[in-house]
Design brief:
With 758 residues, this protein is mainly beta. It has four domains: 116 residues, Immunoglobulin-like (Sandwich), CATH 2.60.40; 103 residues, Immunoglobulin-like; 194 residues, no CATH class; 137 residues, Immunoglobulin-like (Sandwich), CATH 2.60.40. Helices cover 11% and strands 37% of the residues. It is built from twelve helices and 50 strands. Strands 23, 24, 27, 28, 33, 34, 37 and 38 form an eight-stranded antiparallel β-sheet that branches.
Length: 758
């Protein structure tokens, strides 16, 4: 075969462009390997292939064959050209791939670029701006705080006109039945934004929540209900769907795309085919939580369709904190410059943004356990009963904070310390701008058990608190210039410890910036992911705590923060004012740590910061028992009926259920529903599993309440001749927190049903 040394042809358009564009051609082998790229000059694209051979095997080479070549043409800049290496890189440019035609004279030609392709090429600019924030409880007041250092991904939903013909026929063929004759229950309702926490708490039901097992709808009824909320489809669109002509259906989707969004939102299997995202820009929120980026989009579209997702650096890794379903959360025809304000709810995200948030001097500010302020962990002994109940218990080491996934029947109340800690708590603190120095250079957390799970005193000694991840790294971000001359960002990290110094395993206090001693990182413009004024200093597994050298389990623990000099010597006589804690009423303000949070030394000195925390990882237990008739379990036949008039005399009926937690750190909700009539008056109850509640008497973990048949049957009583079916639902929720989330894996529950007849 004669070697192909040159490939050249004219490049023209079906319809002339309104503005000049710089075009380039990209020559690929059929195996996807990029051979060459060239600019289109004076409407001619030419590739010099004299130095190219195609290597099939280590010992065999052969000349390029024009039938095995692919040419793609797209508008470019010099920077874009440098970044193209693969066919996937070209996709976002909406390239044109012509068919190479070899003429009788041996020259090549291509057909003009169609208008369906060229209309995508001119680019316009749009400014996308907004703010990321989150609601926080400060004392008894909710504040909407900015979230800084979040990474915001700004995406455009690609025009369906460009890729509608790439959607497989089998997917298009499913659309008529899915819309006109749906046969599946909708499982993904259109999401709505979360309300602010103070409104969310206000609308939470205070009464026990019970699922009505009898009030159900049929599949047809459920589908009709969903269909009633969807927009009416135009008659012409319905007729096209009925036709089953796939080409016509594709065109109808393009013409009715806006109308079909609510329908597409319902079935996730459609999403990858009908919503392709192109990332336009990545920006980082500033100290005010704001992001602001200029993006480009195809001018033939009036405005871009903007979708945003957000991640955040958590414990040294980028974690997604906001990524709602695409089809239901796009700003269609986004008006450029219009603020996009996003509320995140992820409990791991702190609200500690400020314009100059360093802590001056040698101060050490012990801030929180997760999101729980250390000032809201009770240090004194206090015996008190839960709200509405009468059995007191010890509140020391507990917190009054709320937690993510709190059930509707539990509301955290300021200064009502009810919940312990469990799971893997994280200890957050801040260091002064003068640290580290020769005098204060290292820190260490240590602990000992004071009391076991039953609060019996135990003998123990202080041991180093071991991090859950073995070592503690602190991440930073730096800038660099890529091959195109653009500024890019990359992550780095340093190790804080444990570092063996003076016979102890210690952790280096980080400086304000990564390029300061002792780390002196070499990268350009480095900045910590978490500023030193509020950073994670230790995460630990509370189930691995020990008493001495043996497993300690649940109970009361004392945690100490100790400081060391550069030689590794423990500092035991620091001024008390070195240690700071958050103000009880506003955690954004610091105060000198009070005496009950210090290990006091002589005079006005302190040996360490010290706090007590109650640890409890107990598992809830729950069960709904058979209805009792005259004090004995009902003899239910296989049909589930119990006689409430044995021997013609109305019986005493009682409902019983088990709701326990090893140390009473759980709340419960019990409800009874009658048929489809709704809840049975006075049959529901809620409270902490420590005392009677809702008229139910607690004995050895079992709650019991007595009823007459008429009290349970009510409108179904019918003068003692009626009958009815009942559903009982029980949910027991552990209230321990890891500082962010309630330990939902410790919950329990049960469901039961019975029926009454004379």
């Amino acid at each position: 075969m004669e070697q192909l040394r040159k490939l050249a042809f004219e490049v023209n358009f079906e319809q002339p462009l309104k503005e000049d564009l710089v075009l380039a051609g990209f020559l690929f082998h059929c195996n996807g390997y990029l051979l060459q790229q060239q600019l289109v000059r004076k409407n001619v694209l030419e590739f010099d292939l004299s130095n190219f051979t195609h290597k099939e095997k280590e010992t065999e080479q052969r000349s390029l064959d024009s039938k095995q070549l692919r040419v793609l043409i797209a508008p470019v800049t010099e920077k874009i050209m440098k970044g193209i290496r693969t066919l996937e890189d070209l996709e976002k440019l909406k390239p044109y791939e012509p068919v190479l035609r070899k003429n009788s004279d041996g020259m090549f030609s291509i057909l003009p670029i169609p208008i369906q392709i060229s209309q995508h090429w001119p680019r316009c600019h749009c400014r996308v701006t907004g703010k990321v924030s989150k609601w926080f409880l400060t004392g008894s007041t909710w504040e909407n705080r900015a979230i800084c250092r979040a990474r915001v991904h700004i995406c455009d939903v690609d025009s369906i006109r460009y890729w509608i013909y790439k959607i497989p026929d089998r997917i298009i063929a499913r659309i008529p039945d899915a819309i006109l004759h749906p046969k599946e229950i909708v499982r993904f309702p259109i999401p709505v934004p979360d309300p602010p926490p103070f409104l969310r708490n206000a609308i939470l039901p205070s009464a026990p929540i019970a699922a009505n097992l009898f009030k159900k709808s049929s599949p047809d009824e459920k589908l009709m209900g969903h269909a009633a909320t969807l927009p009416e489809l135009p008659l012409e669109l319905r007729q096209t769907l009925v036709s089953r002509n796939l080409d016509h259906i594709r065109e109808a989707i393009i013409s009715n795309y806006a109308v079909l969004h609510p329908w597409f939102c319902l079935w996730p299997w459609w999403w990858p085919y009908f919503y392709q995202l192109q990332e336009l820009a990545v920006d980082y929120t500033d100290a005010n939580g704001r992001f602001d980026a200029n993006v480009s989009y195809q001018c033939f579209r009036d405005r871009p369709d903007i979708y945003i997702w957000i991640d955040y650096m958590i414990n040294g890794a980028w974690q997604i904190i906001y990524q709602p379903p695409v089809p239901c959360n796009v700003r269609w025809d986004y008006q450029c410059g219009t603020p996009i304000n996003i509320q995140v709810t992820d409990p791991r995200v702190p609200g500690n943004c400020c314009c100059d948030c360093h802590i001056p001097g040698d101060a050490v500010w012990i801030r929180s356990v997760g999101a729980v302020s250390v000032s809201h962990i009770l240090q004194n002994t206090l015996m008190a009963a839960p709200p509405g109940q009468s059995v007191p218990y010890q509140r020391q080491g507990l917190t009054d904070a709320s937690a993510a996934y709190d059930p509707g029947f539990y509301t955290a109340i300021n200064n009502d310390y009810r919940r312990p800690f469990g799971g893997s708590p994280s200890l957050y603190m801040g260091f002064g701008s003068s640290l580290p120095n020769n005098n204060i250079y290292y820190y260490r957390w240590s602990y000992r058990q004071l009391q076991n799970a039953d609060l019996d005193p135990v003998a123990d000694f202080f041991k180093p608190l071991e991090p859950a991840g073995v070592i503690i790294n602190k991440g930073y971000q730096y800038e660099y210039t890529d091959v195109n001359g653009d500024t890019q960002f990359a992550p780095g990290s340093v190790t804080l410890g444990p570092v063996p110094v003076g016979g102890n395993n210690l952790y280096i206090i980080p400086p304000e910036h990564p390029d300061m001693a002792p780390f002196n990182v070499p990268e350009f413009s480095p900045d910590w992911h978490e500023p030193t004024d509020m950073m994670l200093t230790m995460s630990f597994d509370s189930t691995s705590l020990k008493r001495g050298t043996i497993p300690g389990g649940d109970g009361m623990y004392e945690f100490r923060l100790e400081l060391f000099d550069q030689a590794g010597n423990l500092l035991t006589n620091l001024p008390r004012s070195v240690y700071k804690s958050p103000d009880h009423n506003n955690s954004g303000y610091s105060v000198n740590a009070p005496d009950d949070l210090l290990d006091l030394g002589p005079g006005a000195t302190a040996r360490a910061f010290s706090m007590k925390m109650r640890i409890d990882n107990g598992q809830c237990q729950g069960e709904v028992f058979t209805v009792n008739v005259n004090g004995a379990p009902a003899s239910l036949d296989c049909c589930g009926f119990a006689a409430y008039k044995p021997g013609g005399v109305e019986a005493d009926l009682s409902l019983t259920f088990l709701a326990t937690h090893p140390h009473n750190f759980a709340v419960f909700s019990f409800g009874v529903e009658k048929g489809t009539c709704g809840g049975v008056p006075n049959a529901g109850a809620s409270g902490q599993v420590i005392d009677d509640a809702g008229g139910y008497t607690l004995t050895a973990g079992v709650y019991e309440k007595h009823f007459t048949p008429q009290q349970l049957l009510d409108q179904c009583y019918n003068n003692g001749t009626g009958k009815a079916a009942f559903a009982e639902t029980l949910h027991i929720a552990a209230i321990a927190t890891d500082g962010y989330n309630r330990l939902t894996g410790k919950d329990a529950g049960d469901v039961a049903a019975f029926a009454l007849e004379p």
